[in-house]
């Protein structure tokens, strides 16, 4: 087999959609039982991992084994680390203020509104954003330079994300830092090292998909574009900075620190 397996890929798209839906519906049931919807943030990384694993199984016999294993492992490492980090960060806390504000303006039954506006929406985004992970598994050609370049970009992103999260967690754990702006470590060079890390992770996974052929590259290019928009203009950087805007010291920090891509501080 020398061409991209379009038929098998199309069937796999249905399996991955069902997988993302199942994870989000299961999370919705758990959230109702617990009385808090913040658990959906944990399910985000879990859903990507589940889609990667299901696609790996469905693509057996259709794609290069090395690329299938590579993209599945990269996705699972990223997704499970993110899920574990968010679970630790939210332990002992009540509902996330974002979901409280969202549900406060629900036009009808809050449970049904949460299902539509949070869980089904996030399930659809998981399916869309994971297209490079799915498409990469159906290219028959052996691993080559784009896959290795993609893995390197992914690794750089994971380091930024994990180190940035760890630095922020340590900073917040010190009572002496209460009310202060984190401006150390990676946070000295970008206001959002974790979001920049996510950006690199998904462009890296897209490069792995490009290694599966032009068809895989074309069908999945929307994924990193959507993720980039979410991180910079959607629920990532924009919303967080709106929340932080009134904090003492934020204006000065924002004035000297790059908004997204790492760069040396202005005036320093």
UniProtKB/TrEMBL annotation:
The chain crosses the membrane at residues 6-32, 39-60, 66-84, 113-135, 147-171. The keyword Membrane applies. Keywords: Membrane, Transmembrane, Transmembrane helix. The keyword Transmembrane helix applies. It comes from the Bacteria. InterPro entries: UstE-like (IPR010721). One of its GO terms (cellular component) is membrane. This is Membrane protein. It comes from Streptomyces naganishii JCM 4654.
């Amino acid at each position: 087999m020398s061409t991209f397996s379009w038929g098998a890929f199309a069937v796999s798209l249905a399996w991955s959609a069902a997988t993302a839906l199942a994870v989000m519906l299961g999370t919705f049931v758990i959230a109702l039982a617990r009385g808090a919807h913040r658990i959906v943030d944990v399910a985000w990384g879990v859903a990507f991992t589940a889609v990667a694993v299901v696609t790996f199984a469905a693509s057996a016999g259709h794609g290069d084994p090395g690329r299938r294993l590579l993209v599945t492992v990269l996705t699972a490492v990223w997704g499970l680390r993110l899920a574990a980090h968010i679970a630790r960060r939210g332990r002992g806390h009540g509902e996330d203020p974002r979901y409280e504000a969202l549900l406060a303006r629900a036009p009808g039954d809050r449970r049904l509104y949460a299902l539509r506006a949070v869980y089904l929406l996030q399930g659809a985004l998981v399916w869309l954003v994971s297209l490079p992970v799915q498409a990469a598994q159906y290219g028959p050609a052996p691993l080559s330079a784009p896959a290795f370049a993609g893995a390197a970009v992914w690794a750089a992103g994971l380091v930024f994300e994990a180190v940035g999260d760890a630095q922020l967690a340590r900073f917040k754990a010190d009572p002496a830092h209460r009310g202060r702006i984190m401006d150390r470590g990676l946070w000295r060079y970008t206001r959002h090292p974790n979001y920049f890390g996510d950006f690199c992770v998904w462009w890296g996974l897209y490069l792995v998909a490009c290694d599966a052929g032009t068809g895989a590259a074309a069908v999945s290019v929307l994924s990193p574009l959507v993720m980039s928009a979410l991180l910079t203009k959607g629920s990532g950087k924009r919303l967080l900075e709106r929340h932080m805007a009134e904090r003492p010291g934020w204006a000065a920090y924002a004035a000297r620190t790059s908004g997204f891509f790492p760069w040396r501080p202005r005036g320093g």
